Amino acid sequence: MADRGAPVKVLPPLLYAVPFALAWLAEWRWPTSLGLGASGRVAGGLLVLSGMALMLWAFWEFRRRGTTILPWGAATSLATTGPYRLTRNPIYLGDALAYLGASLLLDSIWPLPLLPLIMVANYRWVIRHEEAYLATRFGRAYAEYRLRVRRWL
Predict the structure, then answer these.
(1) Going by fewer Cβ within 10 Å, which terminus of the chain is more open, N or C?
(2) DSSP 77
């Protein structure tokens, strides 16, 4: 397992994009409103930008370390600095923030109940496989990192 990366069979961004697209279609067919007006759109824009910034920061950290961003790729380095000193999953946290922000920008209720389901699916289909792989690949270093840094925040 250490030579090939985590046995992840789904592209993690699709876990957020596909349900959001379905929610967008539901919004188009059965319109809703969160009733937040302009303040909701401003908050949504800030959440989207924050999520994207967090993801870019995490991508930069992987690039700086010369390791792969792909969950099924073999990791050459354990990222523990940059955003990884705050959360073990900054990319997935960024995805969730951007998803929530996009829901506010859309001014729709439809995507919101899907977010907890997406996060559970992300854990079951991606994160737990990545964590098992990293434990095998980096052993004690990863175990110590897990003790220091929470999965989300």
Answers:
(1) C
(2) S
